[in-house]
Amino acid sequence: MKRSVFGRIWPNATAAVLFVGFAFPVYWMFATAFKPTGDIISENPVWFPTNLTAGHFAKAVDADHFWTLVLNSVTVTVSAVLLSLVVALFAAFALARMRFRGRRGFIVTFMLAQMAPWEVMVIAIYMLVRDNDMLDSLVPLTVFYAIMVLPLTILTLRGYVAAVPKELEESAMVDGCTRTQAFVKVIFPLLAPGLMATSLFGFITAWNEFPLVLILNKDIEKQTLPLWLSQFQTAFGDDWGATMAASSLFALPILILFIFLQRKAVSGLTDGAVKG
């Protein structure tokens, strides 16, 4: 039976409204970053700017400590994602393939940890880092960021490992591979969709994290971009062009990574389905 006209239109209309609602703030941020100051403060909004300028970006990039904070953010974020992936990969394999006492308890614990708000533990984390004399250091940020994304990473990768038929691993071991070699040569290539999805989640979480760096790192040379961005407008007053340029620079890596990994993740899901 054919669907009614309303039944065909409303899903597309809903999707269009949601797309505009989510995409318009991003468009307005980038558009404002390229507008001359006169267009920004004009009483009549300039929806589609024609006189573009890169001066606001130059002002944001020339701000004090900008490149130091970029290096700090990249170092902490990439290190946290890699650390969480390595730990989660072995933990997910153990939870999916091995049977041991307390296995269900571990899974429930990971789920509860994922639901726990990290903000309520900021004071405890601060005291722990302070007592170990590691304030104003990037190491605690890296470790705690990795721990933040670890529960979801383990649960996600566990599903991908469990979806790989045991027969593939057993066949590789019959052909002479050790369990480690079978994991690297057979299972690991099929985990590409899960690795990319969890990497994207971990990158966004660590890149945007704000409360921990605010509490742990008072030295400007040891801070990250989210804290810099929160103080940017205070430093530059009502210069909304520079503020939007700084926000655009901060959001750009996430947008690029999302577009890239989204395509690769879909391709990996299709390849995994065919191989499985």
Q: Secondary-structure blueprint of this entry?
A:
Blueprint: H1 5-34, H2 37-40, H3 55-61, H4 66-97, H5 103-115, H6 122-131, H7 138-163, H8 166-174, H9 179-190, H10 192-208, H11 211-216, H12 225-236, H13 240-275
Q: Helix-strand pattern, N to C?
A: HHHHHHHHHHHHH
Fraction of residues in helices?
over 70%
**Which band does the percent of strand residues land in?**
under 5%
Mean pLDDT: 81
Count of β-strands: 0
Low-confidence stretches: 267-276
Shape: globular
Q: Indicate the structural class.
A: mainly alpha
Distance between the termini: 35 Å
Radius of gyration: 23 Å
- Main sheet summary: none
Number of helices: 13
How would you characterize the overall build of this protein?
With 276 residues, the protein is mostly helical. The chain is 78% helix and 0% strand. The chain contains 13 helices and no strands. The chain has helices at residues 5-34, 37-40, 55-61, 66-97, 103-115, 122-131, 138-163, 166-174, 179-190, 192-208, 211-216, 225-236, 240-275. The model is unreliable at 267-276 (pLDDT under 50).
Distinctive features:
globular; 276 residues; 0% strand; mainly alpha; single chain; 78% helix
Summarize this, please?
The protein is mostly helical and 276 residues long.
